[in-house]
């Protein structure tokens, strides 16, 4: 499996402050980005996997809504997470 508990705790420790801080917006955005990158690579190999494509679109929407929330609440945290993950152009 590509996403083990160790990988999750590492992502949350790096972006969420602590490994136990799974509710932080930055940690969730980082986790969604990891999953989006994985699904994108899968779809490059399996072009006709429409269920995965749908899952990818839903994940991108969730990440977008979290980013919008963070941008509205604290613009500095938004800019930091964008820069760390390299999401924007």
Q: SSE layout and pairings?
A:
Layout lengths: L4 H11 L9 H21 L4 H24 L1 H11 L4
Helix pairs in contact: 1-2, 2-3, 2-4, 3-4
Task: Describe the structure in your own words.
It is a single chain. The protein is an all-alpha fold and 89 residues long. It is 75% helix and 0% strand. The chain is built from four helices and no strands. It has helices at 5-15, 25-45, 50-73, 75-85. The mean pLDDT is 92.
Sheet of most strands: none
Counted beta strands:
0
Total count of helical runs of at least 4 residues: 4
How do the helices and strands follow one another from N- to C-terminus?
A: HHHH
Structural class: mainly alpha
* Separation, N- and C-terminal Cα atoms: 30 Å
Proportion of beta-strand residues: under 5%
The global form is globular
Percent of residues in helices comes to over 70%
What is the average per-residue confidence, as pLDDT, rounded to a whole number? 92
In angstroms, what is the radius of gyration? 14 Å
Low-confidence stretches: none
Q: Quick recap of the structure?
A:
75% of the residues lie in helices and 0% in strands.
Highlighted features:
4 helices; mainly alpha; 89 residues; globular; single chain
């Amino acid at each position: 499996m590509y996403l083990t508990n160790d990988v999750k705790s590492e992502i949350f420790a790096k972006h969420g402050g602590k490994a136990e801080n799974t509710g932080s917006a930055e940690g969730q955005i980082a986790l969604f980005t990891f999953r989006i990158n994985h699904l994108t690579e899968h779809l490059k190999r399996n072009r006709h996997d429409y269920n995965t494509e749908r899952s990818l679109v839903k994940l991108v929407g969730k990440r977008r809504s979290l980013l919008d929330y963070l941008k509205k609440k604290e613009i500095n945290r938004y800019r930091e997470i964008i820069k760390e993950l390299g999401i924007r152009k």
